[in-house]
Design a protein that fits this description.
With 121 residues, the protein is an all-alpha fold. It is built from four helices and no strands. Helix 1 packs antiparallel against helix 2, helix 2 crosses helix 3 and helix 3 packs antiparallel against helix 4.
Amino acid sequence: MLFNKISKIMFILIALTILILSLIPVPPQPEFLKLSDKLNHLIAYCLLSCCFILAFKSNKTHGVRLFLITMSCCTLYGCIIEFLQSFTNRTPEFWDIMADFIGSIIGIFVAGIILCIKKKL
């Protein structure tokens, strides 16, 4: 029960952090930093989807259904943020969404490993 509440709090904090960091203005970056930007997206959405699974897994939502819900929600969140960036001095990028999507899938598998370990304890 406590684990579930902590996971929900972590999910909300990570979602808010992603939103804030994605919408604050940044100066133009050199081309070689583009890869680190995609890595940041991947890590952020990995954490977001992992916490989503840990926070909202239940007897009714598990397996493939939970996988699809998590992947869809996290990717949609990334798409919404990319759209919102068009109203700031930032530029929405397709490859950011792809990094969000891949990070979400990795996070789902990480959450599965955590749940397996938790079950054995």
